[in-house]
Amino acid sequence: MNMREFSSLVGLSSHTLRYYEKIGLLKNVQRNSSGHRAYTSKDLTWIIFVKRLKETAMPLDNILVYASLRELGSESLSQRQKLLELHQETLKVHIAQQEKHMAALEEKINIYKCGKVR
């Protein structure tokens, strides 16, 4: 698929996709006979995963480390697992904090609903 189709499908601008290529996050993008980018289903799967990591607040530097490890193939499986497990722990802490914030907001909203404003 071309840049416009891919961009629309993954919800990233063409500028972002070119930037990801530039920094090595998106590698070996194929080109058609005209020299235009031709994205594959493999690129789609990878970018969806990258977006998930970003949406869960993994720093771009860590995503780049993961991408570098991925390039090494199966010899880096344990390192990739470790990186993802560390991110998982960070994400769990973040979710717990957000749940506390939600509870505090709900408590305040209930105070307003009951008319017991302080």
TrEMBL record:
InterPro entries for the chain: DNA-bd_dom_put_sf, MerR-type_HTH_dom, MerR_fam
Record bears the keyword DNA-binding: yes
GO MF assignments: DNA binding; DNA-binding transcription factor activity
Annotated keywords: DNA-binding
SMART domains from the UniProt entry: HTH_MERR (SM00422)
Residues in HTH merR-type domain copies: 1-69
Protein name: MerR family transcriptional regulator
Source species of the chain: Photobacterium kishitanii
Source species taxonomy: Bacteria, Pseudomonadati, Pseudomonadota, Gammaproteobacteria, Vibrionales
